[in-house]
Amino acid sequence: MAEYNFRLTIPIPHSPVYGYPRGLVFKSWLPTSNEIRFTEETAEGRIWFDSTCIPRHQELLDELMPGLRFIPEDPGGLTPLLRSPTLLNNAYQVRYMKMDLLLKNVSDNLRPYMLTKNEASPPPGPSELYTELQKVARRLYEASLKYANRLISAFRVYLGHFWLAEYARNQESPWLFDITDIVLSTFQPHILVDGEWHPWQKPVIGATLMLGMSGGTAVLAESDWPKIVSVVQGNERPDLVLELLATADLLATLGRRRSALMEACTALEVAIKRFADKFDRRPEVRARLSGIYGDASGNLRDKIERLGISYTLRLLLPLLLPLEDVPRERLATAATAMDERNSVAHREQRDIKPEKLLPLLRAIRALCLDLVRITGDEARNALWRLSQGGH
Q1: Which of 22, 82, 192, 311 could disulfide-pair with 307, CB 3.0 to 4.6 Å?
Q2: Cα–Cα distance between 157 and 173 in angstroms, integer?
Q3: What does the alpha-carbon distance between residue 321 and residue 276 come to, in Å, rounded to a whole number?
Q4: What tens digit of pLDDT does each residue of 335-351 get?
Q5: Which range among 101-105, 177-181, 315-319 has the greatest average pLDDT?
Q6: How crowded is residue 282: how many other Cβ atoms within 10 Å of its Cβ?
Q7: What is the pLDDT of residues 233-250, one digit of tens each?
Q8: How far apart are CA 214 and CA 263, in angstroms?
Q9: pTM of the shown model
Q10: Axis crossing angle, helix 257-279 with helix 354-375, rounded to the nearest 10
Q11: Bridge partners of residue 5, in order along the sequence
């Protein structure tokens, strides 16, 4: 088995919050002479910094006042952070971290494709060799994100750097293609060959990109263009349920699965409320609900409030929705999603496995569409059909 040394330049991700730094902030010193070492059974490495990790005066000015030129007395000098009332003077921001990784126990069969500066390529199409190369890339991806996120989390949680964002891990999910290669390319990976660092990129084969987490991403057909025009020309905000579901998809993609489930369940609660508002005063509905579940009245909204959303999905909606309109399995899965949301919210559960989250998001989106269709809201139905690719 072989060992290989890699060097990565990892951007420190941040949320787009105007007026705040885009990296780690240090007071009156810079970590250029410090490093963080870590060791695992099959890998070891270090995080370190140099002057290239720190923006110059001109970079900061370009962000705030494009076109303004700055000629420093010392062209090689490091850049103080902007004198902001929210930050102390003599503060410096670091926007990149360097990481050296030694990967151990790598197959000897990969040597021709690891040390020839990309001159060799594996056989076309999936193969055992390609699988082994993918494993190396995946190990590099996982180890780099693990320790980069620990550093980012330490600053975000303990030093109040709320603008920082951790890298999403576990992207090898049921609904998204494996982005290992794309993420690694942003880290500018180099491999050590005969004492020199050379760019490294694992040879890749084509991959199919699946759009959408919960099934709500669509391409626009020409016939649907007038619907987009009506949204732009109108004064109303986008549909709240769809907006929440879109946010849930984004959060799931970013690896923030806990928040994704929260948003999706909120969307379902709004959809159920709309359904109740539409049907509550219908005589046939009140007659159907009269005297059941501990209440003599047939008030739908009162029963939903008394039962809660989970039991509304399990007990109440099956009485009102025909089986041909809403599959019972969909209701049960949506109820499971609400139970999971409660566990996340009240039992300090930090994460949800990707393979568990996806069916919950899909069931919630499908059920929301069912409820909109059943209420007969034509305007909202048109937008929902657009969100489903016209289906």
Answers
A1: 311
A2: 27
A3: 12
A4: 999 999 988 877 777 78
A5: 101-105
A6: 13
A7: 777 777 888 889 888 988
A8: 13
A9: 0.62
A10: 20
A11: 102
Residues 78-132: pLDDT tens digits?
444 443 333 344 667 788 999 999 999 988 888 777 765 555 555 545 567 777 8
Amino acid sitting at position 196: E
**Which burial class, exposed, middle or buried, applies to 35 when counting CB atoms under 10 A from its CB (0-12, 13-18, 19+)?**
middle
- In the beta sheet, which residues pair with residue 10? 97
- Hunting for tokens 């020409």 — which residue is that? 222
| For the chain, percent of residues with pLDDT exceeding 70 | 71
Residue 119 in tokens: 């001159």
Question: Rounded CA gap, 33 and 302, in Å?
Answer: 65
